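Lecture 7 notes: from sequence to structure.
We start with the chain below.
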Amino acid sequence: MAKHGKKYREAAMRYDKQTPYGPREALELVKTLAPAKFDETVEAIFKLGIDPKKADQLVRGTVSLPHGTGKNVRVAVFAPADKEKEAVEAGADVVGGKELVEKLQAGGELDFDVAIATPDMMAEVGKLGKILGPRGLMPNPKAGTVTPDVGKAVGEFKAGRIEYRNDRHGNVHVPVGKVSFDMDQLAGNLAALSAELIRAKPASSKGRYLRQMSLSSTMGPGVKVDVGSVEDFSQSVG
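Predicted structure tokens for the same chain:
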């Protein structure tokens, strides 16, 4: 197990690691505890009461963060020629059809964070399953990344729409902004994300749904959040 640096250890000593804090107080702590000189990402981790082995309990979708993530999101679009102009005008960074699929199959660089495809391109894009799948880049209708309206999708992902999905342990790990964001921006993003995850609760999920939650910066220690206060918080912040 890797040893933490001096700044991390000093930050971890400035709060009670076992105490769950209210969402806003936790965000304030994360901003204060961030040890790095660069603008760290603020990340939220939710432990959900789901069985990831059951298909009807998977939690996946997208949510628009009102203040964006603070990251320049690079978007690739797989589309036929008549849709390429629309994608480029919306701000797509990489655009192509069958030739783009072939380029990536041949070892071309995956220099994008989100991949969007028109439905009629999925037969070709499916050939990239072993390349895009492990990186979480395969377009999917549930994530809003398989759509005929590529211009709208590109614009939304550029503006702060992000994909969330549970891992094999039932956790959802999502960025909610940067340490440089002000408190209202971080709180607004976290509230939007929390409200969406609560809305996405599978009907077959039994018992407590939000089991645990924590917030941290890229290099900082984790701060526990009082899950009992998350629902009210998600409704009270715009």
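Points to note: The chain has two domains: 15-69+161-236, 75-158. The longest strand covers residues 41-48.
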